[in-house]
Amino acid sequence: MNEPLAAAAAATSTNFTVIGILAAIFVPICATIAVITWNHYRLQRHRADAVAMASYRKLAEEAVASMTEVRAEMAKLAEHVTAVEQLMRDVG
């Protein structure tokens, strides 16, 4: 009477060797895919940061050039104001 139970138990027993082999194959593969995916997105974020920094650098260069132009115009304006003040002193 115990023979059918033993046969049924043997038929439904879990083979841990197969599970271990499959885990030994699939776990490193999944871990490798996860690391590659993570590094890919990290690289994309780094590239986006580099593009943003290049944009900021270009903006800073344009601001410096603009400030140089403004300083030159202010110097010209100061010369004209000085000339007008001198003219007013001479007249008055």
What is the alpha-carbon Rg in Å?
A: 40 Å
Structural class: mainly alpha
* Average pLDDT figure: 89
| Bulk shape | rod-shaped
Labels describing this entry:
92 residues; mainly alpha
How is this structure best described in words?
This protein has two helices and no strands. It is mainly α and about 90 residues long. The chain has one domain (about 15-90). The longest helix is centred in the middle third of the chain and has 76 residues, at about 15-90. The model has no long low-confidence stretch (mean pLDDT about 90).
Short recap of the structure:
93% of the residues lie in helices and 0% in strands. With 92 residues, the protein is an all-alpha fold.
Chart the SSEs and their pairings:
Layout: H1 2-11, H2 16-91
